[in-house]
Design goal:
8 strands; alpha+beta; globular; single chain; 28% helix
Length: 201
Amino acid sequence: MALGWPARFKQGSVGVRPLVRSDAARLNALRLANDSWLSPWDATIPAGAGLGFTTQTSMIAFQRRKAKQGLMMPFAVTWDGELVGQLTVNSITRGSALSASIGYWIAESHAGRGITTLAVAIVSDHLLTRAGLHRVEIAIRPENAASLRIVAKLGFEEVGIARRFLHINGGWRDHRIFQILAEDVPEGLMARALASGAGQA
C-alpha cells in the first residue's frame, strides 16, 4: 500500500477520498454527460499500443491494484458528498527522486468554483508531507486555460515544454510542465488555495 493512501480529506464542501468500485456507475454517467467538455483533454491510447479500459469498473480495479503497489493514488473529488470529478496521483517514484505527477478532471456543472484548485492543494500537501515526497508535477496542454489558472493560483513553477508529451484526444500533444517542491511551500498549498477563494462558491 502506498504510504499515505488510502486517505480522506474535507475542506468545506470539497472532499477528496479514495476511488472505490462502487463509484463506477457515477463515473460512467459523468463521463458520458461531459464527453464534449472533457474530450479535448482526455488521454487516449495510440494505435497499436494495446487496449484501454473497457469499463469504469476495470479502470478503478486497475488503479486500486496500482495503489496497493505504491505506484499511484486514485481519488474521487466530491462536492457536498457528491462525486463530481477525479484526481489521480501517477508515477509515484521513491528512491532518489521522491516524486509524482497529478492529473484531474471536473464535471462542467461544477467547474469555475475552485473545487479542482482546492483538491490539487489538498493532495499536493498530502504528498509533500505524510507521503514523504519531494516533488509534485503537473503537465498541462498550452491551450488548457482553466488548468493553467490552477497552477498559477497555487504557485507551481513552470520548468519547460515537453514536446508531443502525451497522447491526448487522438494525437501526441505538447505539454507545459509545472512543479512544486516541498521546500517551496513549508506552509503548504492550502492557504494559497483558500486565499484565491477556491471551493467557496
